[in-house]
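ok trying again, last paste got cut off:
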Amino acid sequence: MNPQDTNTEFSFEEAIQKLESVIDRLSNPAEPLQKLIDLYEEGVSYLNICKQRLSEAEAKVVILDQKLQEQNQTEP
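nice, full thing came through this time. structure:
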């Protein structure tokens, strides 16, 4: 499965779990070079999903913080 094709299907937690699995598999030096390259590419895809989910969460926090500040300014 190519994680880039299913980007919207993974939550942050799922992507982290899959990334950790890839990292574990990359630790096996007995794997052929091409397999390690494929695993690395897969890991980068999961890392990008994690970054995207974190950016989305950060944007939500910023919006909520702005709303809270606006609410506090309008209260006497």
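cool. The mean pLDDT is 90. The chain has two helices and no strands.
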